[in-house]
Write a structure and sequence with these properties.
Layout: H1 2-51, H2 59-81, E1 87-89, H3 99-106, E2 135-136, H4 155-172, H5 180-186, H6 200-209, H7 230-233, E3 242-245, H8 251-258, E4 263-267, E5 275-280, E6 290-299, E7 305-310, E8 322-326, E9 343-346
Parallel strand pairs: 5-8
Antiparallel strand pairs: 1-5, 2-6, 3-9, 4-6, 6-7, 7-8
Helix pairs in contact: 4-6
Bound molecules: 2-acetamido-2-deoxy-beta-D-glucopyranose (4 copies).
């Protein structure tokens, strides 16, 4: 009897231990959901740091950057999870920065106060009719590989130089990567301000006055204001005759221009930092703050019209450094103001 009793007692103890154990496991799972999410995010941040070669100066900086990274990743994931979208957001090399920080150094399009409206000029493509349904200058050897402006507000130089590369390739048959650094370091006589911003017509004006521009190989980009190297400045490899503006606020006119050569355009870029792919049709204003290059246009299989734009945020961003943006939106200004201030060099 005593023997059986002992056995029952052991069994009871055993059950108590199992039940307590299970409930503890359940309880700890519940309590730690947030924590394990955080741990997961810490791991993702570490992996991201390795992928993009990011090093922080101390633990405080790392913790601060981690919190921004986490917030951005959570936003990106909730945006992508939210049903039918024509574009996707993604994690990229900018994900540990706030949009205020990014605005400060990436958006270097600054039209000077005086003469703030773009000048009216002749428009050589006014009577080009009809124009093709779609154009992609990348397939015609008129666009160099995507570049990276780095921590420098020199988008305006990349936009302008990209347009010069385009017209130079179209007229000579030679695609040559040209020097943004020359424009950043040498176009400093009052119009443009290097890494602190500038505008594309200012760059065209400089290139024209200088008698041309040298190559990327001769005068490589290093994302600093630098001091103008006159030896390289005068080793011209591509010339322009002048530049013109596309008549403002009319996407049909902009199509005519893009059908004929890559065009420098200004946009408001604040909504684009986490863009990954698709046709961007999100909320966007008209405070032009970024210079980019329109290299084509087309229509998706679902009938959405878009522009193809080359950015200067490296190839990790967007569709290999490019983005597509909805074309033909009501007011004529174009989404993000793409039709407000478009210009191109002539050759
Ligand atoms: C970057 O290039 C400019 C212009 O050539 C030069 O003055 C400057 O010293 C360079 N900076 C670095 C960090 O290489
Ligand atoms: C836009 O330009 C086209 C010519 O390319 C013209 O037919 C049309 O009327 C213009 N639209 C507006 C709103 O000015
Ligand atoms: C076209 O629509 C289909 C179905 O709605 C969708 O799955 C597909 O992603 C769309 N394609 C493009 C290029 O937008
Ligand atoms: C530009 O300056 C000349 C003369 O000082 C140097 O010989 C070059 O090396 C320099 N070029 C660049 C790209 O720095």
């Amino acid at each position: 009897m005593a023997f059986t009793g002992q056995k029952q007692y052991n069994l009871a103890i055993f059950f108590v231990i199992v039940v307590v154990g299970i409930s503890q496991v359940v309880l700890s799972r519940k309590l730690n959901d947030d924590e394990s999410n955080n741990l997961d995010m810490v791991g993702r941040h570490e992996q991201w740091m390795v992928k993009y070669g990011r090093v922080y100066k101390d633990d405080e900086e790392k913790q601060k950057r981690f919190l921004i990274f986490k917030k951005n990743v959570e936003y990106i994931e909730s945006f992508n999870a939210g049903g039918d979208k024509s574009y996707k957001l993604g994690i990229n090399h900018l994900t540990d920065k706030t949009s205020e920080e990014l605005k400060a150094y990436l958006n270097g399009f600054k039209r000077p106060q005086r003469g703030s409206t773009p000048p009216t000029t002749t428009f050589k493509y006014a009577n080009v009719d009809p124009i093709p349904e779609s154009v992609d200058w990348r397939n015609k050897g008129a666009v160099t590989p995507v570049k990276d402006q780095g921590d420098c507000g020199s988008c305006w130089a990349f936009s302008a130089v990209g347009a010069v590369e385009g017209i130079h390739a179209i007229t000579t048959g030679h695609l040559v990567s040209l020097s943004e650094q020359q424009v950043v370091s040498c176009d400093t006589h009052g119009r443009d301000m290097g890494c602190s911003g500038g505008f594309m017509e200012g760059a065209f004006q400089y290139i024209w006055e200088n008698g041309g521009i040298t190559s990327e190989a001769n005068y490589p980009y290093n994302a600093t204001d630098g001091v103008c190297n006159v030896t390289e400045e005068t080793s011209v490899v591509a010339e322009i005759r002048g530049y013109e503006m596309v008549p403002a606020n009319n996407e049909t006119q902009l199509m005519k221009a893009v059908a004929n050569q890559p065009i420098a355009v200004a946009i408001e870029a604040d909504s684009l930092f986490s863009y990954e792919s698709g046709v961007f049709d999100g909320k966007c204003g008209y405070q032009l703050d970024h210079g980019v290059l329109a290299v084509g246009y087309g229509t998706t299989e679902n009938g959405t019209d878009y522009w193809i734009i080359k950015n200067s945020w490296g190839t990790n961003w967007g569709e290999g450094g490019y983005f597509r943006m909805k074309r033909g939106i009501g007011a004529g200004l174009g989404l993000c103001g793409i039709a407000m201030d478009a210009s191109y060099p002539t050759a």
